[in-house]
Automatic annotation (TrEMBL):
Residues 26-87 form the HTH asnC-type domain. Keywords: DNA-binding, Transcription, Transcription regulation. The keyword Thylakoid does not apply. InterPro entries: ArsR-like_HTH, AsnC-type_HTH_dom, Dimeric_a/b-barrel, Tscrpt_reg_AsnC-like, Tscrpt_reg_AsnC/Lrp_C, Tscrpt_reg_HTH_AsnC-type_CS, WH-like_DNA-bd_sf, WH_DNA-bd_sf. SMART domains: HTH_ASNC. Gene3D superfamilies: 3.30.70.920, Winged helix-like DNA-binding domain superfamily/Winged helix DNA-binding domain (1.10.10.10). This is AsnC family transcriptional regulator. Pfam families: AsnC_trans_reg, HTH_24. It comes from the Bacteria.
Length: 182
């Protein structure tokens, strides 16, 4: 009887039929690669190969395929915003002043570079913006620009501290819900 796997690198990789395809069509080994790269986007193909048990060329091929599929959309540097003079982070919820107006706030606000992220949300507001600025005065000026550019009302929450951010996903298992409970 034939084995159900092929040997690649130092470890065997299961090639079982439908069970190998998993959540959102991403195989277990690809989820492992994504998890490793999310934690360290500069990890070398050699280190990825060691961590996954694949050959360097197999890892390279899988990473390129994940990039082509859009699973991996890019690589970025994590910046210390305090060090570059943008210590104030806030979340700005926006709501159109005229509910019958076109829903084009993201386009109207795209020129404001202090807006780091724009999330469409369910609830009373239409969008939540993550902004980074140098001071409370800069935040006040930005809020005026947001209101004028998109014809919206705003509700702002200022971040006091960030215990953690940029957490890497752990793919392939359920989150540890209640793990802290004793």
């Amino acid at each position: 009887m034939r084995a159900f796997h092929r040997r690649r690198g130092p470890a065997a990789i299961p090639r079982a039929g439908p069970a190998a395809a998993t959540v959102a069509g991403v195989e277990e080994i690809d989820r492992r690669i994504v998890t490793l790269l999310a934690a360290d986007g500069r990890m070398s193909f050699t280190d990825l190969a060691k961590e996954t048990g694949l050959s360097v060329s197999a890892v390279h091929q899988r990473v390129r395929r994940l990039e082509k599929r859009g699973v991996i959309r890019g690589y970025a540097a994590l910046v210390d915003y305090d060090e570059i003079g943008l210590p104030l982070t806030a979340f700005v919820s926006i709501k159109p002043n005229d509910p019958s107006a076109p829903d084009d706030a993201p386009v109207r606000l795209s020129h404001l570079t202090a807006i780091e992220a724009c999330h469409s949300v369910a609830g009373d507001e239409s969008y939540i913006l993550k902004v980074r600025v140098a001071s409370p005065l800069a935040l006040e000026e930005l809020l005026q620009q947001i209101r004028a550019s998109a014809n919206v009302s705003t509700r702002t929450t200022v971040v006091l501290s960030t215990p953690y951010d940029y957490r890497s996903p752990v793919l392939g298992r359920e989150p540890d819900v209640g793990a802290a409970e004793g």
